[in-house]
C-alpha cells in the first residue's frame, strides 16, 4: 500500500503535491521589528494610539457597547502594516488569540496575514502566510526573493481572529523606511455585517474593504461585525467619535431583524453621525442578492422591502437638506446573470464576489470623494 493513502482510501495531498506542503522554515538571520516601531505604520485601528491593541473598537467606550460587538472588535479585519525595505526576505511572527475554527472560511483568511508589494495604486499580491491551522501562533517566511531592492510592503491582518502580538522580520543589514503617506489624514469608515468584516475571503487582502484600500489612497477602517451590524445608536455614537472621516459607508441592512428595525435604526444612525460630522459624505449600500432568492420569494421580497426603506430614508433626508447623503443599490454588486456563483454558502462572498463588489464600489467612492 502506498504511504500516500490509507486503507480507507484517504488521500494526503501534502505527500502527493510538494506545493501543498508546509515549508520547514528556518528563521535565521532576521532582525525583528514591532509594528509600534518607527517608521512602520499601523493603520485600520482607529483607537490604536489610545489603547495600543489590535482592536477595532475602544476598550473603554463612553457608552455601553453590545457584548457581541465588544467581542468581534478583537477580530483584526482591515488592519494593515506598511513600510519600505530592501530586504530580500520577509518573515512574520504571530500570536493569535485562538486557532482557526470556521467551517466555511479558509484558515488563511480567518487567521493569516498576506503581503502586497508596490506603491499605493500599484500594489500586487505576493504571498500568504502558510501555517498549521491547529496552532494558535506561527512564524513563517512570507517571501524569499533573488535580490534585495527597495519595495513598498503592505501586510493585511487576519479577518476573523484576534492578534495578540505580531513582529516583522527582515534581513540583517536591510533598511527599514517609512511607507508612502496617505493622500490625507482622513479615513473611510465601513460599518456593516460579516460580509463587511470579510467573510469568507480566502485571504485578508481579498475582503472588499482591503481591495478598496489598494485603489483609494486613504486609510480604511473596517467596522463590520459578523451577525451584529444592527445599527445600534450606541455603536453609532462610538463610530462618530473617530476623527477626520472622509466618508461613512453604511452596509448593515443584512443584519437587521425586520423592516421596522431598519426603518428605525437607519435614520437614527445617520442623525447621530451628523451631530458630530455635519457634512461628511454618507453612502448607504443595500444588501447583495442571496442565492436562495431564486427559489425563496419571501427572501426576495424582504430584500426589496429593505431596499425601499433605504431609498426612502435617503430621499427624505436629502429633501430635508442633507446634500451629502448617497445610495447604492447592492443588488447588482455581484453581477446580474451569475451572482449566485459568487458566494461560498449562498450569502458570504468568495474572492470573486468581493472582487466584483469592489469593482462596483470603486467608481462610486471615487466620485463621492472627488
UniProtKB/TrEMBL annotation:
Organism domain of life: Bacteria
Domain SGNH hydrolase-type esterase N-terminal: 31-175
Pfam families, per database record: GxDLY (PF14607), Lipase_GDSL_3 (PF14606)
Record SUPFAM superfamilies: SGNH hydrolase
Limits of the SGNH hydrolase-type esterase domain: 187-366
Name this polypeptide is given: Hydrolase
Amino acid at each position: 500500500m502506498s504511504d500516500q493513502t490509507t486503507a480507507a482510501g484517504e488521500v494526503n495531498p501534502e505527500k502527493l503535491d510538494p506545493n501543498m506542503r508546509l515549508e520547514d522554515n528556518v528563521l535565521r538571520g532576521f532582525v525583528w521589528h514591532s509594528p509600534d516601531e518607527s517608521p512602520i505604520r499601523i493603520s485600520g485601528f482607529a483607537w490604536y494610539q489610545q489603547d495600543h491593541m489590535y482592536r477595532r473598537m475602544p476598550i473603554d467606550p463612553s457608552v455601553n457597547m453590545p457584548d457581541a460587538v465588544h467581542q468581534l472588535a478583537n477580530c483584526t479585519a482591515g488592519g494593515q502594516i506598511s513600510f519600505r525595505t530592501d530586504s530580500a526576505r520577509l518573515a512574520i511572527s504571530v500570536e493569535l488569540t485562538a486557532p482557526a475554527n470556521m467551517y466555511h472560511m479558509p484558515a488563511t483568511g480567518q487567521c493569516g496575514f498576506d503581503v502586497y508589494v508596490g506603491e499605493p495604486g500599484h500594489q500586487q499580491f505576493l504571498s500568504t502566510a502558510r501555517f498549521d491551522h491547529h496552532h494558535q501562533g506561527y512564524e513563517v517566511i512570507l517571501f524569499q526573493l533573488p535580490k534585495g531592492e527597495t519595495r513598498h510592503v503592505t501586510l493585511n491582518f487576519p479577518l476573523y481572529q484576534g492578534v495578540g502580538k505580531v513582529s516583522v522580520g527582515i534581513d540583517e543589514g536591510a533598511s527599514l523606511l517609512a511607507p508612502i503617506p496617505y493622500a490625507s489624514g482622513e479615513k473611510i469608515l465601513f460599518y456593516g455585517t460579516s460580509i463587511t468584516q470579510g467573510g469568507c475571503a480566502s485571504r485578508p487582502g481579498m475582503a472588499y474593504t482591503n481591495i478598496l484600500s489598494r485603489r483609494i489612497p486613504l486609510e480604511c477602517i473596517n467596522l463590520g461585525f459578523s451577525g451584529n451590524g444592527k445599527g445600534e445608536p450606541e455603536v453609532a455614537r462610538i463610530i462618530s467619535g473617530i476623527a477626520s472621516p472622509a466618508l461613512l459607508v453604511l452596509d448593515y441592512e443584512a443584519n437587521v431583524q425586520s423592516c421596522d428595525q431598519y426603518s428605525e435604526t437607519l435614520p437614527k444612525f445617520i442623525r447621530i453621525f451628523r451631530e458630530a460630522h455635519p457634512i461628511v459624505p454618507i453612502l448607504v449600500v443595500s444588501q447583495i442578492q442571496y442565492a436562495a432568492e431564486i427559489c425563496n420569494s419571501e427572501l426576495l421580497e424582504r430584500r426589496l422591502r429593505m431596499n425601499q426603506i433605504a431609498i426612502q430614508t435617503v430621499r427624505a433626508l436629502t429633501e430635508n437638506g442633507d446634500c451629502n447623503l448617497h445610495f447604492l443599490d447592492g443588488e447588482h454588486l455581484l453581477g446580474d446573470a451569475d451572482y449566485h456563483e459568487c458566494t461560498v454558502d449562498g450569502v458570504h462572498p468568495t474572492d470573486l464576489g468581493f472582487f466584483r463588489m469592489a469593482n462596483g464600489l470603486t467608481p462610486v467612492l471615487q466620485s463621492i470623494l472627488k
